[in-house]
Amino acid sequence: MQLFLTLDAGGTSTRAVVHDATGTCLGYAVGSGGNPTASGVAPVAATMRSTTEQALQRAGAQPAQVCHALAAMAGSTVRLAGVDAGLRDLGVPVPLHLGSDLEAMFFSGTAALDGAALVSGTGAAAIVVAGGVTTGRSDGRGWLLGDVGSGYWIARRVVRAATADLDHRGPRTALTDALLSAAGVTGDRTSDKDALLDQLVSLLYAIPSPGIARFAPLAFDLADTDLIAGDIVEAAAEGLADTVLALGCADASSPLIVGGSVLYHQSGLRSTVTELLRDSDWTGPVHAVSDGTAGAICMNLRRAGVAVDVPTHARIIASLQQVRTNA
Amino acid sequence: MQLFLTLDAGGTSTRAVVHDATGTCLGYAVGSGGNPTASGVAPVAATMRSTTEQALQRAGAQPAQVCHALAAMAGSTVRLAGVDAGLRDLGVPVPLHLGSDLEAMFFSGTAALDGAALVSGTGAAAIVVAGGVTTGRSDGRGWLLGDVGSGYWIARRVVRAATADLDHRGPRTALTDALLSAAGVTGDRTSDKDALLDQLVSLLYAIPSPGIARFAPLAFDLADTDLIAGDIVEAAAEGLADTVLALGCADASSPLIVGGSVLYHQSGLRSTVTELLRDSDWTGPVHAVSDGTAGAICMNLRRAGVAVDVPTHARIIASLQQVRTNA
User: What pTM, to 2 d.p., does this model score?
Assistant: First the structure.
């Protein structure tokens, strides 16, 4: 039996699956993620290696049995080399192939080879897929230059709105107390705003750049009751819809797969993005996926010449669900 | 004759002045600035020491003759300690006192002890001064949380507008070609936007966080001919006016001193901020200063018990102008 090793590396977790050529999952493991840009290649390579080891163990398989290995991850072949070396060291006899994390997200949601994917996690980006390959991309330019509607983008607006409120430069918002509480800042905002702001400044500047994304959920929690929070979520939805529309898809009736921690967990945002796309004549089905693992399995299989049709795709999803439940 | 040593440390340059108790400047030197937050205490201390040495030489004076020393700088007493040690090592027999850089900016513009100062350079902040001391501040919360209308704030909008334009997510703007040219990115935007964006991403993320402020002038260059650039400058002016109004000055007829590289060099921005303040019933005179050096001299003199009245203030300005011309 030909064994496949599929890795899916996201910003917050890394997933390893050992499966066969029919898409039946035999072993599964999850490791700490770690943004490779922030943490460097070595920790990501170490996590990839340890999750691979665990997934193989759970499948009752040896590294030497792996015939096809693929990792879906953001980034370059330089990063891949470090991960590849770790797997070789473990005894995996075949080279690790790199797959796009955005394509993996797309193929998680559909067996089709044409359509688009929109991801909003810490960052945000969209791709258009034609004939099974990425033919265009939009945004994904990082926290400084783009990532409109991402967790970082939303959180930045949250922390700035709270700062402006405390500083009497901006309108009152419930985000302020929510942020002070989430950041662990204590004190009386009426007696000494500067002492409170100094605390907030110290705490938030100590977080490496995209890390403030952790405060994005505050906007969603308060979107229905606070005007400023509602505006932030509305603007995020508009930005994400624009990112999809900028792809200039020839066929707006093809599937749009949406994912990433923000779009997957915030159904309100997902609905608003969908409505905005409908208003712009995007007629295709919109489907949410939790991650790119199933899609990465499809990519690994297709690379080995296995056809992934609708029943195979469904079997992969079901089988993955089962090993996840057991893991 | 009692000699005074006054230092004024800004983000881009450090100034040292040796003067007497009448405010007559005897020696002047300028050194490289360096943001102490970015470069650390040691380089700032080294610059302070070398500019002090030069200013003393030009005044034909010895370090041992210094009776009163004051440095106006952003930041803490921790930073001051490093600078102080360097001056002691040089032979300056008196301790270095710390003055607020924002107060120095205020006192550069007026002999009055009441009023407000607004600074927009790489960052942006405002203070209200009453009886010669700061009694309130607004913004100055840094690039992530505040600094509305600062060089960084403007530049961030410039680079994001250009990125969105290139990515077809945002409107066309002349800022795009201006930025590509300023950043040294070459290529054809019609044939391969992603290759061009990848270059821009690599170049701009390599600049430490507030450093992109260098691109702020692009917005001012194009404000009259490009809608997006005009909107950025207009929003900066509104933000800066709000920062002043948030001070909640009891007396809006007191002087407002404006400074910092952005507000000093961009007279259009200065006029718009002034108009917005006039619309909000701020009636006091608005006066621009290039830096806080004259004000730091005033602070040093006052600390030593010298009264700085209007004629003394005028003499300091004139004398400083003279040593600067000769330097």
Answer: 0.90
